[in-house]
Structure formats: structure tokens, C-alpha cells
Specification:
Chain A is α/β, with parallel strands linked by helices and about 350 residues long. Chain A is about 30% helix and about 20% strand. Chain A is globular, with a radius of gyration of 19 Å. In chain B, helix 3 (about 75-90) crosses helix 7 and helix 7 (about 195-200) crosses helix 9 (about 220-230). A five-stranded mixed β-sheet of chain B has the order 3-2-1-4-9, with helices on both faces. The chains are: A alpha/beta (about 350), B alpha/beta (about 550). Chain A: This is Glycosyltransferase family 2 protein.
């Protein structure tokens, strides 16, 4: 609750109204979701839950689920936004997945966040909830040796309610079109490079979060208008309470205190990374489709920029790219920190 | 002399009874008698399960239950009752070890028995006089004993704090009974039965208990204080390895700590994360029938944990990231390594950057903050760490740009600077002890002299650049400067360019190549005419030096240098 005292009453009331509006919106939009397979009765107290919105991700799903199962996620609550590639049927057959289906507009539901806010409100209360996309893979300090439950119980014991994980774009060496990732294959065998240092940080005083931009996307696709590049700061892991709400994707949430995941007195708090397996061969095809649908942030400006870039055969790799080699490397580079979790 | 040791263990449990039962069995199987205290807050059904799991062990007893809360006397009461019960049921016990349901024995119990047997009259209890500062985390030291603490810190924090303040204002000081001198220490100890009995059966015990009931965290002071009254053989350290972080919370132990814990040779470690199944399966090490008596050596594990605390509290200098974003002047090091900024020489000499690169074992860049973009060495579009040279991206977060660059490279970073560049970092660099700055004021006039622009444009640009540089000089001449600053005006520098450059280069790189030749200097002819013309047009040229020496003099010096 740092700095909250310094935040004027008027601002606090405004944030409160904003939060209530988001929650109300999520409750209203619940009718957009049609339950396909509801196994939420299996959720036990203390289970770690994972919330996902997806569309046409059939090929990625097996490895995605296995990755998070291995970390110790006990149940997946997924929203299928009208997939046509068989994702629905495949997910229905998974024993630890509860699935909802909708063909409503992704953009109209604030890029799926209304649906997710509703599911979090309904099922997440009291659980540690991880909200990710199917191409985001959480890495945290000691993740090769300690399960996610070790992290969450430690966060509990230190009184923390949220855990930050910056989005780290991973890309292949060579053209993106040639980086083919087979079903069930670890995407980071193909896309295993990242930018070690080109990230800019600004503080958002309204919500209290840090706004991080940069990485290969800004470097390669947004040269004309670099300030429009995507935000990379994320807070995907939260001990949920029905009063909470995500504001914009998982970049920030309300109440404001949940966004204060960084130390301002010179110390380091704990943080992780979401490895982003977006830049694979499937991406080129997707960018054509998404450009037409215009369902993504800023009228799919990202996808249009990518599309223009990919047509020119742009490589994201450069001689300063680093090859991924585990969480210790990310910590040495200063992208993540173990805080005082020894 | 080795006496016969019959070890008793008092086990305090409040959560995760499954693990506690498992640990109780480890102690009992090692030959110890165990008295278990289970917090009265634990549901009866769960306790029944634990009793059931341990019913085949006749060396395990359960003591009277108390409701315990952290920092209160109830924990001492629970320990007293369990210890008394243990000594009553097993009167021949010689030593009693206080452990919790999350304390894992690392070495066989027989090792501990042999170690205690080597000096059977010794009491192993950390007991530090409160006059020696620095035991506690967060304030209360001697006040633990001199004030009353009737309120629970966790449940009634507000009342707790207000009451402490009120007592301080009123000047309340409790006096310790019976000539006790207050001592503090780790709550986990191993006492001889003789000492423990003396403490429990002390005729003044009701008086002591009344006193400690309102002391703060008595479980860290009750036995630690009273042992000084009854024992002459205090070994003031705990046989249980327990480390705390800067907020006073115990560190948790996980599977990946196995090698470090094995190396530490500690007898008991806390606190184990209940999910660390490999750790729980690995320890205690199997009893091979040959007890070892070597003492614990927790130095390495202590060092590692202290480093982590340091990282949490102070952080890594010059790092700005998602979970470390220090506010201004709380950075603990604005940048991570020394760097050098040269303002002026690049305008005075042709090809200065390349010349400098040949003399230094550093990364020599152009104008990193230049208006057309970051001029990285070699003018690549992406610099070290894939940092973009795009000016818009850089100017979004110039401080992040510079600090990332310095942090990601191994060599020293050297770059040119001038009034045409982004001035956003002027205060940052001037107040950073890592910055080495060579500033030649007014040097930017030379490129202007050769620009062949119409005079009106020259005058406009001249006024603008001069204003910017004067602003920068206000910063550099303030009392807040921490950078190693070498400042000259153009006239001063031109009189003696070689020693000035040589001194600066030796300062930033002691192994730099000695300066024998200087690069070609820009032609100075016409400078005084230009300045006169500007003066006559109503501008007041400054920053060149009050008296720019005659051009001929400077030209001679240059010839000598060449």
C-alpha cells in the first residue's frame, strides 16, 4: 500500500469508480460466454489457476498445457473465441480444463479482458491466478528447481499479492517465416534469442505501474512511430479477490496497490519474465488474418507493422541478440530479480 | 570425558502436522524422547490424525495445549509445559533440544548426541546482552523489556504502536526483577536438563513469568536471560541454523539448497518449505554407526543469504528494471560503472573520435545523445545490448538508455557531447560519481565558423547554442556536482591541448597509449572576426575565455604538437 497515503482522496475515488465500472462490465458481459465443459468443481482450495483467452491455437496448446502443468498449475479456465481449427474439441477432452466459448467481438470485450475478469471474479477468489496468452510462458527465479507453489507460498508469507513478469519477445535466428515449430515442440528450441538491454521504462502515475517498451518489435517494426510500440510490463500472477480487476490486458490492474511491484528505495523486489513465443512461422499467416479482422489493440497496428516488415523479409535477429540460457542469465542481465527469495 | 547423553526434544507445532509428525518420528527413531506441543488453534480432528500416525512410538508424548500467537508469552508457556512434562516422564533425560515442526535435522541424531557428549555440561543457547546493539530487526531492542506489550502485534498493530508511543511519552520504564540482566538470542536452543530444571523450578519463577508476560517477543529472551542466572557453561550460539531476512522473517529452505545444507554440517536447519519433498527425503543423512562430532560451519550459507538480503535492500547499482525503479537520489549508484563524456574536443579536432579510439581500450562513441540519433561506434543501427539508435526511442527514456548501455557492456563507455545534443541527462551525469567529464566550453563555435551559413543563421544558432551551454554550466558549477569534472574554456584548452587530453585520458584509462601527436585542428582563422561581428550585431559572445590568445600563438603550439 506504499504511496497510497500520498495519493489524494479525489484520485482514489476516481480509481474506485473505475474499478467498479470494470467489474460491472465484466458481470454484464458474462452472458457472452457459453460453457462448453465446466470442471470448476474439481478446483480445490489453494490450487493455482490459469486463465487464458485463445483463438485458433490448436498447434500450440499441448506444449502450453504441459508447460504449466509441470510448474504446478492445477486447473485451466479458458475462453475460446470462436476457433475453427479444432482447439475447442481438443480442449474439451482435457481433464483439467474448463472451457467457455464465445463468438463475440474480442475488441468489444476490451481484448478479452471482460471475459477474463468475469471468470476471475467467479472462480479466482482466494487462489493465485495466472493470466496469460497461449504464447506466453512464465519464467521466475529458481523456476528450474522450485514449483510455482513454492513461489506463491513465499509471496503469501511476505504479504505480497501480485507478481510482475515482463514480456520478453523471443525470436529465431533467420527469417521468421522459416522458424517452424511442430505441435508439442518447445517453441524456444526454435525462437531462442532475445534483446538483452533495449527497454525503456516510464512510470504511470495514475495507476502506479511502470510502463516498459522496447525489445525487437520496437526496433524492427515500429521505426516510423516507436512510441506506439507495445507495452511489455505485465502482472500476470495475482492472489485474486473479487474486488480486483484487470484494466488493460494484464499490464495493470486495480486497486492501484497491486501495481506497486517495484522498489523505489533502491532495493530489488522479486520479478520474473513471460517468454513470448510469437515470432514463429505461424505468425506470418496470423498477421494477414488479424490485419483483416482488426480485432487487436490500436486497430491491429502491430500486425500491420509486422506484416509490412515480414514482407520485406525482416530478421529480428541482430549481432547483439542473446541466446536464452535459463533464468540465471536473465537475472544477471537485470531483466528479472530474485528479490530476497534466497 | 564423554558422558552418556539421553536427548529429549520439545517440538512446537502449529501448521502442517503431517510434516511435524514425520520430523517427530525422525527424532524418536534417532533415540530421542519427544514432547510435542500442538497449538490449541489446530482443529481436534487434525491432531487426532497426528496422534494416530505416531501411536506406535512410545517415546513420543503430547503436552498440554496452549493458544499461541507470535511474539507473545504463550509460546514460552507452551515450551515450559512441554519441557516439564518431558522431564517428568523421562527423568533421566540429560539434554533438551527445542525445535519446531519445521526444523529439519540435517545430520543423524547420533551425531548430535555424540557432539553433546563431548562436553556434556555445556548449554548451547544464543544469549546476547541487549547492551550489544544490532540483534533485532526494526527498532525495539532494550525497550522490549522496559515497556509493557499487552497487545498483539499482528492482530492489533494500531493499538500496539499507539501504546508504545504513549509509554515512551510518559517515560515508563519497567524494572527487571531479581537482578536479571536482559539477554536476547535465537529462540531455538539445547539446554542441559540440570539448567532447564533450575529455570523451571526457580522459586522466583512466578515473578519472572509475570515480568515476561508483558515483554515483547519473550520466546527470544526468556530462556536466554534466565540461563545466565543458572548456568556457567553457556556456549552462546544456536545449534539450529535459522536465518532471517531484513524484515525478520525466517528464510525457507527448498530442494535446491541440499548441497549447501550438506556442506554446512549444521545439526538442524529451519525453516523447511513443506513442499520440498526431495529435501525432506534427503535429510537427515543416514546413520552409518560412526557418529561425527565436527562442529557446524554455517559461514557459506550465511554469506549467500546475506548477499540476497543485500540485493533486496540495496539492489544492483545502475540497474533500472521492472522490479527496481529507484526514485531520484535513492539509486544506490546512478550507473553501474565509470564512463567518460567529452564535450568540445570533437569540435576542435578533425577525426577526434577515431584518434581517441586508437589511444584507449574503451568503447569510443560519437554523440550518443545527438539529435540525429545515437552515434554508436561504427555507426550501427543497434548498439550494444541491441539498443536502438533511433532518437525517438532514446529520448523516450534517456536515462534508461545510458544506464542500460553502461550496464550491458564490459568495457568503459566514452562518448562525445555538446549543446546540440539532448540535454535531459545534464543533472544526472553531473551528480553521478561514475562520470568523468572533460568540458571545453565554447568549442562548438568552430564548426559554426566553418559552416558557411549566412550570417543571420549563424547568429541565431550561435545564440541558441550559447544559451544551452550556459544552462549546462549552471549545472556543472553547482554545489551538487559529483562527477570528476575537468572544465576549460576554449582559450585555455587551445593553449595546452596535449597535457589536458593526456591527463584526462590517463585518468579514465591508466593504460592508454601516450599522446605523441594530436589530430589535425580545425582552422581558427576568422574566429575573432566572427566574434567581433556577432558582438557588433548585438550578441554577447561568452564561453570562449575572456581573452582568446592571438591566433598565431595557438598555431605555433599546434605546430609544436605535430
Amino acid at each position: 500500500m506504499r504511496n497510497l497515503g500520498a495519493h489524494p482522496i479525489k484520485g482514489r475515488l476516481r480509481l474506485r469508480v473505475e474499478r467498479q465500472r470494470l467489474i460491472g462490465r465484466a458481470i454484464r458481459r458474462r452472458r457472452a460466454l457459453r460453457s462448453v465443459s465446466n470442471r470448476t468443481g474439481l478446483i480445490a482450495s489453494g490450487d493455482i489457476l490459469c486463465f487464458v483467452t485463445l483463438r485458433d491455437e490448436r498447434v500450440r496448446l499441448p506444449w502450453f498445457l504441459d508447460y504449466y502443468r509441470a510448474l504446478g498449475v492445477r486447473h485451466f479456465l479458458m475462453v475460446d473465441n470462436a476457433s475453427t481449427d479444432g482447439s475447442t474439441d481438443w480442449l474439451r477432452s482435457q481433464p483439467d480444463v474448463s472451457l467457455w466459448w464465445t463468438n463475440h467481438s474480442y475488441k468489444g470485450s476490451r481484448f478479452g479482458m471482460d471475459w477474463i475478469n468475469w471468470l476471475l471474479l467467479r472462480h479466482g477468489c482466494g487462489h493465485w491466478c495466472l493470466t496469460v496468452d497461449p504464447d506466453e510462458f512464465l519464467v521466475y527465479p529458481h523456476c528450474n528447481q522450485r514449483p510455482l507453489a513454492a513461489l506463491t507460498s513465499w509471496l503469501d508469507s511476505t504479504g505480497r499479492r501480485s507478481f510482475p513478469a515482463m514480456l520478453l519477445d523471443m525470436y529465431p535466428k533467420g527469417p521468421v517465416e522459416d522458424a517452424i515449430c511442430a505441435e508439442g515442440q518447445n517453441p524456444f528450441e526454435v525462437a531462442r534469442w532475445f534483446d538483452p538491454a533495449n527497454y525503456s521504462i516510464q512510470k504511470n502515475d495514475h495507476f502506479g505501474n511502470l510502463w516498459i517498451q522496447g525489445g525487437p518489435r520496437t526496433r524492427a517494426f515500429f521505426t516510423q512511430d516507436p512510441l506506439a510500440g507495445p507495452a511489455l510490463n505485465k502482472i500476470p500472477l495475482v492472489k485474486w479477490h473479487w474486488r480486483y480487476a484487470y484494466v488493460s490486458s494484464t499490464h495493470m490492474l486495480l486497486p492501484r496497490g497491486l501495481n506497486l511491484v517495484y522498489d523505489e528505495d533502491g532495493g530489488e523486489q522479486i520479478s520474473g519474465c513471460l517468454l513470448h513465443a510469437k515470432f514463429l512461422s505461424s505468425f506470418a499467416a496470423k498477421s494477414v488474418e488479424e490485419m483483416d479482422r482488426r480485432q487487436h489493440y490500436g486497430n491491429s497496428q502491430e500486425y500491420r507493422a509486422y506484416h509490412a516488415g515480414l514482407h520485406r523479409g525482416v530478421q529480428l535477429w541482430c549481432s547483439e541478440s542473446r541466446e536464452y540460457d535459463g533464468w540465471q542469465q536473465l537475472e544477471d542481465l537485470g531483466l528479472i530479480s530474485r528479490g530476497n527469495w534466497a | 570425558m564423554t558422558g552418556t547423553v539421553r536427548l529429549g526434544v520439545v517440538l512446537l507445532c502449529h501448521a502442517d502436522l503431517g510434516m511435524a509428525a514425520r520430523l517427530a518420528r525422525i527424532w524418536a527413531d534417532g533415540g530421542a524422547r519427544v514432547a510435542i506441543h500442538v497449538d490449541a488453534k489446530v482443529a481436534a480432528a487434525r491432531l487426532a490424525g497426528m496422534r494416530d500416525a505416531l501411536k506406535d512410538c512410545d517415546r513420543i508424548i503430547f503436552s498440554r495445549r496452549h493458544r499461541c500467537s507470535w511474539g507473545r508469552f504463550s509460546l514460552v508457556r507452551a515450551t515450559q509445559d512441554a519441557a516439564a512434562e518431558l522431564l517428568r516422564q523421562f527423568p533421566d533425560t540429560t539434554h533438551v533440544y527445542l525445535a519446531s515442526g519445521a526444523c529439519l535435522p540435517l545430520r543423524p541424531v547420533s551425531d548430535l548426541v555424540a557432539y553433546l557428549g563431548a562436553d556434556p555440561d555445556r548449554d548451547h543457547i544464543e544469549s546476547v546482552s541487549t547492551h550489544d546493539v544490532g540483534w533485532t530487526v526494526g527498532g525495539l531492542n532494550e525497550e522490549r523489556f522496559s515497556l509493557f506489550f499487552p497487545f498483539d502485534w499482528k492482530k492489533h498493530r494500531w493499538l500496539f504502536d499507539r501504546f508504545v508511543e504513549w509509554q515512551r511519552r510518559r517515560g515508563i520504564r519497567r524494572r527487571m526483577p531479581g537482578g536479571l540482566s536482559p539477554h536476547l538470542g535465537s529462540q531455538w536452543w539445547c539446554l542441559t536438563a540440570r539448567t532447564l530444571r533450575a529455570i523451571l523450578e526457580d522459586p522466583q519463577r512466578p515473578e519472572f513469568d509475570r515480568f515476561f508476560r508483558f515483554a515483547w517477543i519473550p520466546d527470544e529472551s526468556y530462556f536466554q536471560t534466565l540461563v545466565r542466572r543458572h548456568s556457567t557453561h553457556v556456549e552462546s550460539w544456536s545449534l539450529t541454523m535459522a536465518k532471517f531476512d531484513h524484515t525478520g522473517r525466517p528464510y525457507l529452505l527448498y530442494d535446491d539448497h541440499i548441497p549447501m545444507l550438506a556442506e554446512s554440517r549444521c545439526f538442524v536447519a529451519r525453516k523447511v518449505w513443506p513442499g520440498a519433498s526431495r529435501l525432506l527425503a534427503h535429510f537427515p543423512l543416514p546413520d552409518d554407526g560412526h557418529p561425527q562430532v565436527d562442529p557446524p560451519q554455517p559461514a557459506r550459507i550465511s554469506r549467500i543469504i546475506n548477499q540476497t538480503v543485500r540485493r533486496r535492500v540495496l539492489g544492483r547499482p545502475g540497474l533500472y528494471m521492472q522490479s527496481r525503479f529507484p526514485r531520484k537520489d535513492a539509486e544506490n549508484g546512478k550507473t553501474s560503472a565509470p564512463y567518460a563524456v567529452l564535450q568540445g574536443p570533437g569540435d576542435i579536432f578533425h577525426g577526434f573520435e577515431d584518434w581517441l579510439r586508437r589511444h584507449l581500450s574503451c568503447d569510443v562513441h560519437g554523440h550518443l545523445l545527438g539529435p540525429e540519433g545515437a552515434e554508436f561506434a561504427g555507426r550501427s543501427r543497434t548498439g550494444p545490448g541491441a539498443i536502438s539508435s533511433d532518437p525517438q526511442i532514446r529520448d523516450r527514456d534517456p536515462q534508461g538508455f545510458l544506464t542500460s548501455l553502461i550496464r550491458i557492456t564490459n568495457r568503459m563507455q566514452v562518448f562525445q557531447f555538446g549543446p546540440r545534443d539532448n540535454q535531459a541527462l545534464n543533472w544526472f551525469m553531473a551528480t553521478d560519481p561514475n562520470a568523468h567529464m572533460l568540458v571545453v566550453t565554447g568549442a562548438w563555435k568552430l564548426p559554426l565558423l566553418h559552416s558557411r551559413m549566412p550570417f543571420d543563421d549563424v547568429r541565431r544558432v550561435f545564440a541558441q547554442l550559447q544559451r544551452i551551454e550556459l544552462g549546462h554550466l549552471d549545472v556543472l558549477n553547482s554545489v551538487w556536482v559529483r562527477a570528476r569534472l575537468h572544465q576549460y574554456d576554449l582559450g585555455e584548452f587551445l593553449m595546452n591541448p596535449r597535457p589536458i587530453l593526456q591527463d584526462f585520458m590517463l585518468q579514465i584509462d591508466p593504460h592508454s597509449v601516450p599522446v605523441t601527436t594530436l589530430p589535425a585542428m580545425r582552422d581558427l582563422t576568422g574566429l575573432d572576426q566572427m566574434l567581433r561581428k556577432l558582438r557588433n550585431s548585438g550578441l554577447r559572445p561568452r564561453l570562449t575565455g575572456e581573452d582568446l590568445p592571438p591566433i598565431e600563438l595557438l598555431t605555433n603550439e599546434r605546430a609544436a604538437a605535430e
